[in-house]
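Recap from last week: sequence in, structure out.
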Amino acid sequence: MSQTLVLNATYEPLGVVSDRRALILVLNQRATTVEDSEITLHHAHGSFNLPAVIRLTKFVKIPYRHAIPLSRRAIFARDGGKCVYCGATATSIDHVMPRSRGGGHHWENVVSACHKCNHQKADRTLKEIGWKLRTAPREPAGAAWRILGSGHSHQRWLAYLEPYGGDVTTTVSA
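Predicted structure tokens:
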């Protein structure tokens, strides 16, 4: 089953729904298709493509959104899938200030790391081993991160997510 990006009437990304739900929204005229997918449905009177991106016909007021949940997938998305210490492909997460030394499990202390760097750093601080971070870890902001952090992303969605979450080109799968 494929996924469809849902945009508010103002083109702000709201979330991701199943292709079945998206089709129901379009057929009931609660949404319009912005971009079609490659999946074609055939029926007795013809055929049509399933929507890849839909836009609601009426504006939906979004209540205050709490902090973006901290997850392994979201950390890799924020760091572009690269180790923050050496730039290699990340395979694990690391606490900059080790938890055994009082470091917390929050956005500003958790980064993606390759196996080699994570093993070398072990239970030490960056100051002790003389390392520096390539970029300072911070909590991502923007509506796009709710979608990217959950792992739902497609190349077709880039144009709709970029204005609401910064540079997301490294986090999108084909």
